[in-house]
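Incident review: delayed structure delivery

Summary: a single-chain prediction request sat in the queue longer than the usual turnaround. Root cause was a stuck worker, restarted by the on-call engineer. No data loss occurred. The affected request and its eventual output are reproduced below so the record is complete for anyone auditing the incident later.

Affected input:
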Amino acid sequence: MALLGQVQRLFERTYGRPAGVDLEACVVGPRRFAELASRSEDHPEMSDWARFFFYVEGANLRLALFYAEEMIETLEARDPRRGLSESNVLPLLVFTEEASHALHTTYAFGEGGPARVSGEEFLAELELMARIDAYLLLRHFVRALARRVEPSDLAWVRHQALTRWDVPYDDPGMADRYRGAARLATAFVDRLEAAPARRRLRELRAFRALPMPEKRSRVEPGDRSAERGD
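Output delivered after worker restart:
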């Protein structure tokens, strides 16, 4: 999928490091998806459009990405690189979220091994980075498509990538994880946009490398380091 390769390259340039894996080679079909889903602890409320799986086998990290044919057909028929609307923005965001999960899992595993990618805190971290990445990618596409980006365009990006994800879940754990990710991502994006332009990329890369407790501390009220440019 050409879109997946482009998204991977954009994020690798943004974060200043290669993933060390070709995400296109990690895409699996319906049969393998069913096998992996049967072995995982996925909640039934999770989307059937796309799914990311990972597990550690010895010293190796195994990844798998699944994209439903319906979603792929939508993105091919309404290529978000040529135009964005309500008809294709949600599939694009779901597509981006799973690619982000895979990318940040490879980064974290490369930096800290199996311990770095285990536990509920890491899952919360993946959701947080997915929301940030969705915002960054959608803003990138909007800027590429528009001759002039208006405040209303950026407000639309913010709503689509961040605030629209405040939805109810039956499972309290999922609700906390997704709402917490949206809240923290919104706070971080606001601080990033408020920082001097020359410091934003450095701030983003530094934030990515932090474990979840430190990410949370960095954007909770009271931490003004991004605004100072520390």
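Verification: Confidence is low (pLDDT under 50) at residues 224-230.
Action items: add queue-age alerting; document worker restart procedure.
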